Amino acid sequence: MRPEDFRLKFPALQRFTWLDTPGAPPGSQDVTRSMETLAHGWLHGDFCWTDWDAAADKARIDFANYIGVHRSMVATVSSLSEAAATVAGSVPAGVVVLAEDEFRSNLLPWWGTGRSSVRVARRREGVSRTQSLIEAIDSDVVLVAVSEVLSNDGERVDLAKVRQACADKNARLFVNLTQSLGVLNTDLAELDADYVAVHGYKWMLCPRGAAWLVVREDRMDEMTPLVPSWKTTGPPVGYFGGPYRQADDMSRCDAAPAWFSWIGARSALKLLASLGRGQVEQHCLRLAAAFAERADVLGFRDASLGAPSHIVSVELGNLDPIAVNYALMQRKIKATVHNGRLRVGFHYFNSPDDVACVTDLLTDLRSQY
Questions:
Q1: What dotted CATH number matches 3-27+276-367?
Q2: pTM higher than 0.85 for the full model?
Q3: What is the DSSP code string of 181-199?
């Protein structure tokens, strides 16, 4: 599917220049129509709740096919923090390394279990997040938890280098792909991370509440559910009484599903599966690079110190953030201003015209200061 055809599936793009997918994307017709059908059936009673309940397990298969793993390795959870907390409560106690500016859903769960000692990888001036993490890994470390991309600066961590550093010290690797999967074509088989988690409500275009935890086969036996429930036993599922048992695969760590989220997630995964992942990455990185280059010419410095991604955050310098935010709203540009930076993100539905819209705004604002 061409980017311009993909764009037609998002009616909001007729009104807005949407560069805030790092926060939340607009809804696609495919997903919202499935939700509308769902709501209509609920309202009029034309539904079967067991069909709704089966959606999460079907989405497990869809997701496994999308990323190229076996379904037995995948748990369906409700958030990144739930995925991280599940792993934190299952791995051996020891030192866990995280970036000091890690997103809190992949930061606080490692503190919260009380099993691990958290070591924060401090950022030194001019040093990438990748290098900071590697420097913090020693023989005391049992696990490194890292986001491939953080939306505060858009830096893309070199996961292969971090993975090698973990292997050298016999440490495990937990990777958060919430700000990258759906756009970046990371080869998970080649990466061979111990644990991978993603919340689908950003670049994967899902409703919030659909997330996945993938555990490598040799780590599955030690995994225990964060909150045991009627889903923990695996099929055949029972409802009343009976002894406690756990499913043989990662479904033992499933959360009780929010039905509507998972029905929408299936539509989103079908849409993403119709795209060429390599083509999507190239398109989005090309747009991001074009914006970063034009912003730099205007004097707005890219905040990233490492490899670029589809997210770009530029320092606003002496521009008034309130004025920038107001100008964005006036021109119907969806983007985020935070901590003296302007953040934009590019999905497959974005175009060179979107780059022009936001760089024209920066040009006009620069002329006023």
A1: 3.90.1150.10
A2: yes
A3: TTTS---HHHH--SEEEEE
Q: Which residues of 93-102 are buried (b: 16+ CB within 10 A; e: fewer)?
A: eebbbbbebb
Q: Is-contact 173 144, C-beta < 8 A?
A: yes
Asked whether the predicted pLDDT for residue 113 surpasses 80, the reply is: no
State the angle between helix axes of 29-44 and 259-273 in degrees (0 to 180), rounded to the nearest 10.
150
Where in the chain is CATH 3.90.1150.10? Answer: 3-27+276-367
Q: Which residue has 């769960």 as its token pair?
A: 109
Question: If one looks up domain 48-273 in CATH, what number appears?
Answer: 3.40.640.10
pLDDT at 115 over 80: no
Mark residue 225 as left, alpha or beta (left: phi above 0; alpha: psi -120 to 50; beta: remaining): beta
Query: Minimal CA–CA distance to 157: which of 125, 127, 199?
Result: 127
Instruction: Give the E-state strand segments of 186-321 in sequence order.
Output: 195-199, 211-215, 311-315
In the chain, CATH 3.40.640.10 covers 48-273
CA contacts within 13 A on the Cβ side of 38: 21
Q: Worst-scoring range by mean pLDDT, 33-42, 110-119, 125-134, 327-336? A: 110-119
